[in-house]
Amino acid sequence: MADTCGQVLLGSGLTVLSHPLMYIKVLIQVGHEPLAPTLGRNLFGRQVYQLPGLFAYAKHIIKVDGKVGLFKGLGPRLCAGTIGTVVHSRVVQKCQEQGTAQVLGGQQKAVEGSLQHVVNETTKEMIARSCATIVTHPFHVITLRCMVQFIGRETKYSGVFDSIITVYREEGILGFFAGLIPRLLGDVLSLWICNLLAHLINTYAIDDSMSHTGEIKNCSQAVTGFFASMLTYPFVLVSNLMAVNNCGLAGGLPPYASVYPTWVDCWRHLSREGNMSRGNSLFFRKLPAGKMYAIDQKRFF
Predict the structure, then answer these.
(1) Which membrane topology describes this protein (predicted)?
(2) Sequence spans of domains, the chain
(3) DSSP designation for 300
């Protein structure tokens, strides 16, 4: 229990610190570009038109809503983080108890570091993460919609409880799980890619006789985690877009945004436009080729 409380406190602190970054990232993901491109230079010194980066975007939000404006949607996100940590911890504990019972019942425990051990531990983590994601997704949806209100200057989603009532009244239970499927798929794929790649590197590329083997293995885990997140980023983008799509906010309705019947249609549309990585980078954002900036809607077409 003490470990869970510590994780909740640490997670809450990191959530508060990282919230402005997520806020800006979400607005970029939905295609909101309030500042016109500027002429700058790339890493090779060539002149190119660039979109505003993290700090320019943050200054714009502060100019419109003040510094407090950078923390829209923080309440439901903190709720999601707290509940998710508790659920994840409980499910992991149950999985470990079940694994111990199987060993006592006569089944042989997999050798630590073996492929079977990695598969077993990844399966437990996948179950725990999936349970936490499903339980907290309603708060994730509310968080995203609180953020996207910046585009149309709405106040439809103003608090956790009021937002819950609004979603249920307008969309029913299913409204709380908009964008859940691509989010789950992305989480599961990212976890398996990360752990299996790390196992392959640690087994076949790192010699146990090398000095600082532990630090090298930890580094390989971090590298594979970053690589996995890059590969599965389109699932994150599609999930966030579907969470706000056709929800009554300007940022999720025509003419600003298309209405997608399913997340597969959203994926296909983004793929055709070459926007599968939109919002993945917050720095050195080059103007998309063949796109025109519309002042009235503050987005590209």
Answers:
(1) Multi-pass membrane protein
(2) 1-98+116-300
(3) E
